[in-house]
Every structure is written in structure tokens, then in C-alpha cells.
UniProtKB/TrEMBL annotation:
PROSITE patterns: PROKAR_LIPOPROTEIN. This is DUF4349 domain-containing protein. Coiled coil: none annotated. The lineage of its organism: Bacteria, Bacillati, Actinomycetota, Actinomycetes, Propionibacteriales. Residues 74-282 form the DUF4349 domain. Residues 1-26 form the signal peptide.
Length: 329
């Protein structure tokens, strides 16, 4: 019993692995690989083929939930950018949200700057909304009425090929999962069951990844993001007065000089305090060490005293002689 089932199950799993690799190229190639894998290596019973067909039909009906396109339809992922000049960004942002919600959309991102300087907003504001792709033109017309339009840009990316490819790969992978589930009934040993479960888990993970990509692409087609930049009115710049400009520059220079002086004083203050703390103890110590120094210094500097007896008497000065007077005759 063990020898009878080991070889067909292993061969069937190898054929399914090759089939999963080839099914990514195209749906028709995957169908031919399925037929080849079910031939000489491991014949697939009719019940498994019927289950695969039922699974494929079910996958087609489930794929309609994401609006999977046909080969003749064009699927466009559209985006738009709009620049408006408005006096009040908060009020304009509220109106933008109202327009988007009225068309069946919603708010994605909002950055409203209300800070002002000299009566003007310092930075522009941005609001991003999502609207249905089929109503993008109507949304742009309605948004343009909120302010003065300065720029309007609309772009689109064709994702038809990606969506059709994903649809074909998902259908083929679901059919492959159905065949692996059919092999589970034929597995008779623990080794065979483990191999089949490993292949089944791998295919289910790949299927979930593809379904996520398909849903993301469908969302890009269904909803179009619109980024609106809200700018304040332009400021008229006048030529500055030379006198006022000179006074402003001089005042700024004076303040800068004062700041520099204060900075230097602040930097030197710790060193001054440290020097005073070191100098005061030294001064006190020197005074205590030489208490008689001031008296000695005074005695040295005092003028010498001499007794009166030792000083010789001064000689009297000769009286001036009288000069003869002459009288003119």
C-alpha cells in the first residue's frame, strides 16, 4: 500500500510545482501545463477536475467584488494636483472636505498652517482628499470655485495590463489549489500528507498576496487622490527707505555688539570670581604673618629729630650798607 501511493503523489506534486511556475506567464499556458501534469505522471480523476472547474467558476464570481476588468476595458489610476490662492486656509480646508464628502470621497491628509507674521500666513497649507475616479473632473471644477486657481495638474497611469495579469494568475492559482486539495484525499502516508500540506500552504499564501495586489489596484482605479495647496495672497514688496534701512542696520549692529560684550563678560566672570576667592585668603594670611610691618615702615619713613644744642647758631646777616645819595645841582 505504501509502495503503491508514494511514487504517484511525489510525481504529481512535482508536476504541480512546474505548473505553478508556468502559470504566471499567461492563462492559456497554465491550462496547457495543467493538462500535461495530469497525464502520464499522475492521472487526475474526473472528480478533481470538476472540483477545479467549480473552484475556477467561484473565483470568477468572487473577483467581481473588486471590479476586475476584461481585456477590452481600460483601467486608469488617476491623480490630480491643484493650487489655490485663499485668504483663510482653515475655512478653505473645511470647504474642501465638504466637496469631497459630497461626491462620495473622504479626507486623506490635512496640514493647515494658521501661524501669521505681519498679518500674513508664514507657510502654505495642504489638503489631500480622495474622490471617485469617475467624478474627478466634477470634483476639480467644484474645488476650483473655493479660491483663485494658480495651477491645475491631472495625471493617470494605465493599470489594465496589471489587473488582467493578476486576474489570470489568481484563476490559475485557485485551480491549482483545488487540484492539490484533491491529492490530499489520495495521500496515504504521513510523508505524503506533509508534502501536500506544504504545497497547499505555499499556494494559499501566494493567492492571498495576489488578492491584496488586486484589491490595491482596484482601489487606485476606484478612488483618485487630489492634493490641494492653499496659498495666501501675494505680498507686495516695496523699495525700502534708505534712511530707515540704515537706522535698522545700525540698531541691529549695536544690539549685536552689546550681545557680544555681555557674552565676553559672562565668559570672564567665573575666572574673576575664582581669582578673588584665591586672592582674599592670601591677603589675609600675609597680614597675619607680618603684624609689625606697618610700625617698622613708619619708623623708617619718619624724619630724623636733632637736638637744638647740636645745631650751630646761625650767623647774623650783615646789614646792608647805606648808599650815598647824590642830589643833582
Amino acid at each position: 500500500m505504501r509502495t503503491t501511493h508514494a511514487h504517484p503523489i511525489a510525481a504529481a506534486l512535482a508536476g504541480l510545482a512546474l505548473l505553478a511556475t508556468l502559470s504566471g506567464c499567461a492563462g492559456s499556458t497554465a491550462a496547457r501545463s495543467d493538462a500535461a501534469a495530469g497525464g502520464p505522471a499522475a492521472p487526475v480523476p474526473a472528480a478533481a477536475g470538476a472540483a477545479a472547474a467549480d473552484e475556477k467558476a467561484a473565483s470568477t464570481s468572487e473577483g467581481t467584488a473588486y471590479a476586475a476588468p476584461g481585456a477590452s476595458e481600460r483601467q486608469l489610476a488617476r491623480t490630480a494636483k491643484l493650487t489655490l490662492v485663499i485668504p483663510d486656509p482653515a475655512k478653505a480646508a473645511k470647504e474642501l472636505r465638504g466637496v469631497a464628502e459630497g461626491l462620495g470621497g473622504y479626507l486623506l491628509n490635512e496640514n493647515v498652517v494658521t501661524e501669521q507674521k505681519d498679518g500674513y500666513y508664514v507657510e502654505p497649507s495642504t489638503v489631500t482628499v480622495a474622490v471617485p475616479g469617475t467624478k474627478l473632473d466634477d470634483a476639480l471644477d467644484a474645488l476650483s470655485k473655493i479660491g483663485e486657481v494658480r495651477n491645475r495638474n491631472v495625471g493617470s497611469v494605465d493599470v489594465t495590463t496589471d489587473m488582467v495579469d493578476l486576474e489570470a494568475r489568481i484563476a490559475s492559482l485557485r485551480a491549482s489549489i483545488a487540484r492539490v486539495q484533491g491529492l490530499m484525499d489520495k495521500a496515504g502516508t504521513i510523508t505524503e500528507i506533509a508534502q501536500v500540506e506544504k504545497e497547499l500552504t505555499s499556494r494559499q499564501s501566494e493567492l492571498e498576496s495576489m488578492l491584496s495586489k488586486q484589491k490595491a489596484l482596484a482601489g487606485r482605479v476606484a478612488m483618485a487622490p487630489v492634493t490641494v495647496t492653499l496659498r495666501p495672497p501675494s505680498v507686495v514688496i516695496q523699495d525700502p527707505n534708505p534712511l530707515w534701512q540704515g537706522l535698522t542696520a545700525g540698531w541691529a549692529g549695536l544690539l549685536q555688539s552689546l550681545r557680544m560684550l555681555l557674552t565676553i563678560a559672562g565668559a570672564l566672570l567665573p575666572f574673576v570670581v575664582l581669582g578673588v576667592l584665591i586672592w582674599l585668603p592670601i591677603r589675609v594670611w600675609r597680614r597675619r604673618r607680618r603684624p609689625n610691618a606697618p610700625g617698622l615702615l613708619a619708623s623708617v619713613l619718619a624724619p630724623a629729630t636733632v637736638d637744638a644744642e647740636d645745631v650751630p647758631a646761625a650767623k647774623p646777616l650783615d646789614a646792608p650798607r647805606d648808599r650815598p645819595t647824590t642830589v643833582d645841582g
